Amino acid sequence: MMGLIHCFTVFFIYLAVQDVNCKTRHRSKYDGKIVGGYDTTIQSIPYQVYLLLQKGDLFYQCGGSILNDMNILTAAHCLTGMERVYVRAGSTYSDQGGSFVTSRRFSQHPLYNNKTSDFDVGVIRLSKKLALDGRTMKAIRLVRSGMRLPTGSNVTVSGWGATSENGDTSETLMAVKIPIVSNSECAKSYGNSLTSRMFCAGVPQGGKDSCQGDSGGPVVLQSGQQAGVVSFGIGCARQGTPGVYTNLADRQIRTWIKIQTGA
Predict the structure, then answer these.
(1) What pTM, to 2 d.p., does this model score?
(2) Is 77 a catalytic residue?
(3) Which of the two residues, 163 and 243, has the higher pLDDT score?
(4) Residue 186: phi, psi to the nearest 5?
(5) Given 65, 103, 117, 215, the catalytic residue
């Protein structure tokens, strides 16, 4: 994929190493939603987690989902070059509340390609178990291996990412509902870079999308099953350019997740 198109949705946060309370030093006020979305709560999306990823003196923001009490699912690109991951679970807020747990180890899919974003999925093993209460912390069910994702069906994408392209991140959890787009339609924007490990979602007119900082977060069908992981896109919520998501129904991806986590 051409470099100008290859826009990962990772939002960079500059922090002091000792500042692990998930706060940026210069978080400005904002007036808006996760591009075209709405405010939500962790009670509505209890499988969502906030990730703070450490690389030297820098910290980076991503999202993730709870697979079970010891394992978090995210995007492989969120983990590239990182030294440690901090996970906040059970809170509507990115910088307070819930449980704040460090990683024991993490891994990317062995076939992950950072140039094409193929196999963009990773797993974080926690240092201690999450106390899953079914209300603010709950494991998500994944779609079955080989399932064909229904074009036109709505998915819910959630996170604390930017509320507009290159805009400010949100301190509170937000979500947006967008329909799955056929890969043939999506190829009009992304060409032959799409693989069976990817699917697209968005509205033709734009205005609804995930954005920077939402990377690795869950993409969930109306049935309550997680179908995808936020991967990449051309900007945020642009007309005619849907977002691209890792397809969790792909057999190679599902097999790897099963081996790594048992989920």
Answers:
(1) 0.88
(2) yes
(3) 243
(4) -65, -30
(5) 215
